[in-house]
Amino acid sequence: MTYEILPITIGFIWISWITGFFLASKALRFRTLRYHLLLESETPNRTIPNSKAKQGS
Fold first, then answer.
1. Where are the transmembrane segments (predicted)?
2. d(Cα 39, Cα 33) in Å, to the nearest integer?
3. Each residue of 30-40: pLDDT tens digit?
4. How far is the CA of 42 from the CAs of 2, 10, 31, 34, 46, in angstroms?
5. Residues with Cβ < 8 Å from 47, sequence gap 6 or more?
6. What is the pTM of this model?
7. Does residue 57 surpass a pLDDT of 50?
8. CA 18 → CA 5, 23, 31, 36, distances in Å?
């Protein structure tokens, strides 16, 4: 009985780990994207002078 359950549990853990890792990487990418968008929308006064200074120099 234990020999029958073992591969099923290992497979289930493996699948859940892969799906969890995939979802985590997807969520992390989305979070960083949102974070950058929030930074750009919150601090326009900081980003605009920096770009002007770079163009001037």
1. 6-24
2. 10
3. 888 777 777 77
4. 57, 47, 16, 12, 9
5. 40
6. 0.43
7. no
8. 20, 9, 20, 27
Per-residue pLDDT tens digits for 1-52: 667 888 889 999 999 999 999 998 888 888 887 777 777 776 555 555 555 5
Q: Which residues contact 53 (CB under 8 A, 6 or more apart)?
A: none
Side-chain-side CA neighbours of residue 5 (13 Å) = 2
Instruction: Please name the amino acid found at residue 48.
Output: I
What's the rounded Cα separation, in Å, for the pair 25 and 19? 10
